[in-house]
Automatic annotation (TrEMBL):
It comes from the Bacteria. GO terms for cellular component: extracellular space. Belongs to the peptidase S8 family. This is Alkaline protease. The lineage of its organism: Bacteria, Pseudomonadati, Pseudomonadota, Gammaproteobacteria, Vibrionales. The active site is at D166 (charge relay system), H199 (charge relay system), S353 (charge relay system). Pfam families: Inhibitor_I9, Peptidase_S8. PROSITE patterns: SUBTILASE (PS51892), SUBTILASE_ASP (PS00136), SUBTILASE_HIS (PS00137), SUBTILASE_SER (PS00138).
Length: 570
């Protein structure tokens, strides 16, 4: 989008919410039921795609009669989805009210919700001179008074992606040093996710800016979902989630999502999407608790797996507008936070939007230390390493925990174990026993490991694992007529994380020793299952025969190889 046209459209930024009386369009978000949709739509074991599910649901809907009032005007035109969120098992579609109600009754549908608009609260910001950020200063010390310093330490978030889902980013700002990249603009549907408001730029600066960022070495991706007035449709936000999942897969490096947006009431499509981002795609999701001075559990996003951030002040009080309650994970500096300003310079802003990137930046630092750390482990580390009982007036049910970024021995990031599996032999002929061992596996932290062996393939026949829960196990194989490649998986666990590796063993079929009775073309074989030798193989007849050469009739001929599955002689 042309930044010049956006320049004077900027509104005062803050943590965002959606008013409860926001207008609704004819666009609906449809959540598909994971279990029911598969049972109803397919009787095979093949898993169909979300796109196929959507097409089947909408085709059924198009063929259903509407109410008496609308039936006469019905044209039976196909109903097409606006967007399909492949990774979120949901889609958006334009529907009449009657169609939406009918869709709710389908077994394949978990819920149907009107699209909603996300918008900004009124808030304050001010231009500032380039002074030290108290938010950084407070994050690296346990107690007041502040010492006026921030120690970045050896970990800067290098090699970690921070996805800032917001109003965009000013990519030319020197604070980002070329590390801020455009992901996608879901407002204008183009590749220029630059900022025309300022909220996203400020957030990105706190997360990973060179001057005022918690993780000044992290890569930053701008995912724009809010327009120049800081408003955006929920359907666009769901699109952005789907995009982030795919982009993170392609990047192949650890990542964290910063989401400094909220809504004044709950909205199930987004809550479910956040759950999926975290539990199915292993993406840590850090979001603002919002600025309503009320219970954060009543707002969206809402997920037991996410990291929900409240805002604190420089004198260790909960910021007056910050939401509170048991759904808050921890607090972080959020009042009068200085960070990057859109179109250059720096400015101060307040809100849980400003607290959130402090935490997202710390998650990036933790991921640099241990790229395989799970969202649940990262959340645990943030909680365990936070400063307890430092804040005043945190609100009913709130955890009295303040972000602390320095690592201590008791809360170091657990490093994943390394699984190594070997076999005393990788090929055997006929029946026999081999030995698998995981003794070369290790744990960088010196933690004690547990072991688990399992056969990955084939599903049948099964080898006999003598000690599947030990570091070593003998494996027994029965004799089979054909060659088989077995795949065994070793999983080692240190009590927090695990690692797996695979070992393959090939079992060769034992050669059949000819019994010396050669096939004769003039001989009559009257009884089934008479064994003969011919051209280096053993054969058995399935019925009376004379003159039929073994092998000439194909796999279903009268003569069949000994041991083959098509041989009825056993």
């Amino acid at each position: 989008m042309n930044n010049y046209k956006r320049l004077f459209l900027c509104a005062l930024p803050i943590a965002l919410h959606l008013p409860a009386n926001a207008s609704q369009s004819e666009t609906y978000i449809v959540l598909l039921d994971d279990v029911s949709s598969q049972k109803t739509m397919t009787r095979s074991t093949q898993v169909i795609s979300v796109k196929e599910k959507v097409n089947q649901v909408l085709q059924r809907l198009a063929n259903m009669p509407e109410s008496v009032d609308t039936r006469s005007s019905r044209t039976h035109a196909p109903i097409l989805a606006d967007s399909i969120y492949q990774n979120l098992n949901s889609f958006s579609v334009k529907l009449s009210t009657d169609q939406a109600e009918m869709l709710k009754e389908m077994a394949e549908v978990k819920g149907v919700y009107p699209d909603v608009i996300f918008s900004a609260d009124g808030a304050h910001s001010q231009n500032s001179q380039r002074v030290a950020s108290w938010g950084l200063d407070r994050s690296d010390q346990r107690e007041l008074p502040l010492d006026g310093e921030y120690e970045v330490g050896p970990y800067t978030g290098k090699g970690v992606s921070i996805y800032v889902i917001d109003s965009g980013i000013d990519f030319s700002h020197p604070d980002f040093g070329g590390r801020a990249q455009s992901g996608w603009d879901f407002v204008d549907n183009d590749s220029d996710a630059s900022d025309c408001h300022g909220h996203g730029t400020h957030v990105a600066g706190t997360a990973a800016g060179r001057q005022y960022g918690i993780a000044p070495g992290a890569d930053i991706y701008s995912v724009r979902v809010l327009n120049c007035e800081n408003k955006g449709w929920g359907s666009q936000i769901l699109k952005s989630f789907d995009w982030v999942i795919e982009h993170a897969k392609q990047q192949g490096q650890p990542a964290v999502i910063n989401y400094s947006i909220s809504r004044s009431t709950r909205w199930a499509p987004l809550d479910q999407a956040v759950d999926r981002l975290i539990t199915e795609y292993n993406l840590p999701f850090v979001h603002a608790a919002a600025n309503n001075n009320t219970d954060a559990c009543t707002k969206t996003p809402h997920s037991e797996y996410s990291i929900t951030v409240g805002a604190s002040t420089n004198d260790d009080y909960r910021w007056y507008s910050s939401n509170w309650g048991e759904c808050v994970t921890l607090f972080a500096p959020g009042a009068n936070i200085i960070s990057a300003r859109n179109h250059g310079g720096y400015q101060s802003m307040s809100g849980t939007s400003m607290a959130t990137p402090h935490v997202a930046g710390q998650v990036a630092r933790l991921l640099e230390i241990e790229p395989k750390a799970s969202p649940s482990e990262l959340k645990r580390l943030l909680i365990e390493n936070s400063t307890a009982n430092a804040l005043y007036n945190v609100g009913d049910g709130s955890p009295n925990r303040l972000l602390y970024i320095k690592s201590e021995d008791s809360t170091e990031v657990n490093q994943s174990p390394i699984a190594v599996a070997t076999s005393n032999q990788y090929e055997l002929t006929g029946a026999g026993t081999i030995s698998l061992t995981g003794d070369a596996s290790s744990d960088p932290d010196g933690d004690q490991l547990t072991y688990q062996w399992q056969q990955l393939a084939p599903s049948s026949p099964l080898a006999i694992l003598a000690s599947p829960s030990a570091s070593k196990t003998n494996v027994g194989f029965d004799e089979h007529a054909a060659d088989i490649t077995y795949r065994f998986l070793l999983t080692v666990n240190d009590g927090v994380t695990s690692d797996s590796t695979e070992v393959r063993v090939v079992q060769k079929a034992k050669p059949i020793t000819p019994n010396g009775v050669q096939w004769e073309s003039i001989k009559t074989y009257a009884s089934p299952c008479e064994r003969v030798s011919w051209k280096g193989s053993e054969w058995e007849n399935q019925w009376w025969t004379v003159g039929n050469e073994p092998g000439a009739g194909g796999i279903w001929g009268v003569w069949r190889k000994v041991g083959n599955s098509n041989n009825r002689c056993g």
